[in-house]
Amino acid sequence: MKSACLLLLLCGVAFAQTPANDWAQWGGPQRNFKSSSTGLATSWPEGGPRKLWSRPLGDGYSSIAVTGGKLFTMYRRGEQDVVIVLDAATGKTIWEYAYDAPFWKEPDMSNGPGPHATPLVTGNYVFTTGATGKLHCLHKQTGRQVWAHDLFKEFGGTVRPNGYSCSPMAYQNTVIVMVGGVGNALMAFNQKDGAVVWQKHDFKNSTSSPLLINVDGQEQLVAFMFGEIVGVDPNDGALLWQHPHETEFGLNTMTPVWGADNLL
């Protein structure tokens, strides 16, 4: 669905202002949608929870990253993608960063124009990816652009009918994204300057986002690509394993789920 407005409830503000419970990326701290929060309400009061504030935004599917009492998200405004940071208590804008993001060809707008990905907040930076494949690093406090890459024009990334969807993931001093294409299926960039740290493999891209897992002490980056699911070394991108997983139109959409029983 399209996002026409943002509503924040009382319990959401309490969560946002608790540093230990920051939700600074897609899926939360471990990208598995699990929260360590305690003391949550088990039922709503009669008439529902009290609404604290609401405000309009634009189109988009980007969810909300929460850290330090601030909300980070994206939306579409005309031919621009907009990164916005809001005060969690009031909904007021702290800063916005808008950039031109025209579609490269006639996209499939039947489900809205995006953005589809969720910002990543780590250290002093905010990393975002828009539907037109533009990766940005912004300063967390000011919204100033630190660096940017066009994943389609620079690296020949897979162009999806509904646009780019991968939510970026941090690993040590890098930010990792799924790109797709010859030699660029997965890419890691230096967080500070955007330099390419590694780029590997020829898999086409999907609409999924990667996950970091630990298998008996070995860290692995798992990516659900167009026609396969793969595991790579997050340090250098070396392929550890792959299994075919073909679907109609390459619609491998969900983020992989990793269990304590070592089942993926």
Give a description of the structure:
The protein has about 260 residues and is mostly beta strands. The protein is built from 1 helix and 18 strands. The chain has a 4-stranded antiparallel β-sheet with strand order 3-4-5-6, with no helix packed on it. Strands 7-8-9-10 form a 4-stranded antiparallel β-sheet, with no helix packed on it. Strand 15 (about 210-215) and strand 16 form a beta hairpin.
Short description:
With 264 residues, the chain is mainly beta.
Helix fraction bin: under 10%
- Which structural class matches the secondary elements? mainly beta
Order of helices and strands: EHEEEEEEEEEEEEEEEEE
| Beta-strand percentage range | 35-45%
Tell me the CATH architecture of the largest domain: Beta Barrel
**CATH uppermost class of the largest domain:** Mainly Beta
Shape: globular
User: pLDDT under 50 segments (min length 5)?
Assistant: 1-18
Radius of gyration: 18 Å
Could you say how many structural domains there are in total? 2
The largest sheet is: 4 strands, antiparallel
Architecture blueprint of SSEs:
Elements: E1 5-9, H1 10-16, E2 51-56, E3 65-67, E4 70-77, E5 80-87, E6 93-100, E7 120-122, E8 125-129, E9 134-139, E10 145-150, E11 169-171, E12 174-178, E13 186-190, E14 196-200, E15 211-215, E16 218-224, E17 228-232, E18 239-244
Keywords:
globular, four-stranded antiparallel beta sheet, mainly beta, Thrombin, subunit H, Lipocalin, 264 residues
